[in-house]
TrEMBL record:
EC number(s) stated in the UniProt entry for this protein: 1.4.3.1
Binding residues for D-dopa: 223, 278
Protein name: D-aspartate oxidase
Protein encoded by which gene: DDO
Subcellular location(s) per record: Cytoplasm, Cytosol; Peroxisome matrix
Length: 341
């Protein structure tokens, strides 16, 4: 039987990781990634790349935990291999601190990250404004390195990558058998999906190599995330704000908030401002849809709407999207067999 042709729309974290999963797990297909933007110009490049899950209100917790665990285990294996440096993956330890004791002292992901425990009184002395804290070790991606690594893996296994903007998924009908939609916030226009909205995030990427412990305020607004090449200082969470231009007042506010937690950051150098729009939704859209035009059909698998947590769950959602693609292929093969009989 001829190979089924799969088009993946989007070359951010979700598109590339889904394309990699499909190309490595489904032998009877060829994979092409089509996107209008590539690294270093995607939202995924702006992210801190920390594996700290955000809760999706529309997904049962046990499923979220499974998506996180699959992603953590996958990246942990890369971290423990000679690929770690090329892929831009490292382990990072640190603290999540709270001004008041949170409802959830033991978050659902506490037994997936490593060495999760409450902070000691001694550790908390560093943060006189905070009363409670959690210490743990997690993984962090250097986002542009990880995206390049995924792209290299794809090209290495014979997949194609093209630059093109798609106005309507139906454009792909004549050349491809199944389309996988990983267009992030672009799905608002591409699919007319009004359930997805931007949450604007501004961060600073600074040079401060002496900072090697992460600090996250439990309110999710202020964070210091040391990575391989720089330290990410955050942030902002501005719902329905589409503005991609840096705001100097936010930059100053972020810097001041981070210095209040880690005063040595006053000496940080080479401060770069980055802005991204988190593709937010109550739940990631992981779903099959059959588009129909003039009696012709095009199976589509959606994988978008990862909001603040794309890095934390991407491998798990790639696996589920690949499973749905497998179902589409089985249905196509079933119907072509029937037509021959
Ligand atoms: C400041 C900030 C910090 C973050 N930190 C973290 C973190 O520490 N941990 C974490 O887990 N998550 C984090 N995130 C969230 C994470 O970045 C996102 O969940 C993730 O990047 C979403 O990936 P994506 O591939 O869906 O989107 P994108 O990276 O936006 O990729 C979408 C792709 O689709 C393409 N596209 C869109 N429309 C079309 C079209 N019509 N035709 C062709 N191509 C199209 C785009 O060009 C792009 O290539 C952060 C986000 C921000 C903004
Ligand atoms: O929330 C965090 O701590 C990680 C950064 C992030 O996910 C974000 O800013 O969206």
């Amino acid at each position: 039987m001829a190979k089924q042709k799969i088009a993946v729309v989007g070359a951010g974290l979700i598109g590339l990781s889904t394309a990699v999963y499909i190309s490595e797990s489904i032998s009877k297909c060829s994979v092409t990634v089509i996107s209008d933007k590539f690294t270093p110009n995607t939202t995924s490049d702006v992210a801190a790349g920390m594996l700290i899950p955000h809760t999706y209100q529309g997904i049962p917790i046990h499923q979220q935990k499974q998506l996180f665990r699959e992603t953590f285990d996958y990246l942990f294996e890369i971290n423990n291999s000679s690929e770690a440096s090329d892929a831009g993956i490292n382990l990072v330890s640190g603290w999540q601190i709270f001004k008041t004791i949170p409802d959830e002292v033991l978050p659902f992901w506490s037994d997936v990250v490593l060495g999760f425990r409450s902070m000691t009184e001694e550790e908390l002395k560093k943060f006189p404004q905070h009363r409670f804290g959690q210490a743990f070790t997690t993984l962090k991606c250097d986002c542009p390195s990880y995206l390049l690594w995924l792209e290299k893996r794809l090209k290495g296994n014979g997949s194609q990558v093209y630059a093109r903007r798609i106005e309507d998924l139906w454009e792909l009908h004549s050349k491809y058998d199944v389309v996988v939609n990983c267009s992030g916030i672009g799905s608002r226009e591409l699919m007319g999906d009004l359930e997805i909205y931007p949450v604007r995030g501004q961060v600073l990427k600074v040079d401060a190599p002496w900072v090697n412990h992460f600090i996250r305020d439990g309110d999710g607004l202020t964070y210091i995330y040391p990575g391989i090449h720089n330290v990410t200082l955050g942030g902002t969470r501005q719902k329905d704000n589409w503005n991609l231009s840096p705001d100097p007042r936010s930059s100053k506010d972020i810097f001041d908030r981070c210095c209040a937690l880690e005063p040595s950051l006053q000496r940080a150098q080479d401060i770069k401002v980055r802005v991204g729009l988190r593709p937010s939704r109550l739940a990631v859209r992981l779903q099959k849809e059959i588009l129909v035009h003039d009696g012709k059909k095009l199976p589509v698998v959606h994988n978008y709407g990862h909001g603040s947590g794309g890095f934390s769950v991407h491998r798990g959602t790639a696996k589920e999207a690949a499973r749905l693609v497998g179902e589409c292929i089985a249905a196509l093969e079933g119907s072509s067999l029937k037509a021959k009989l």
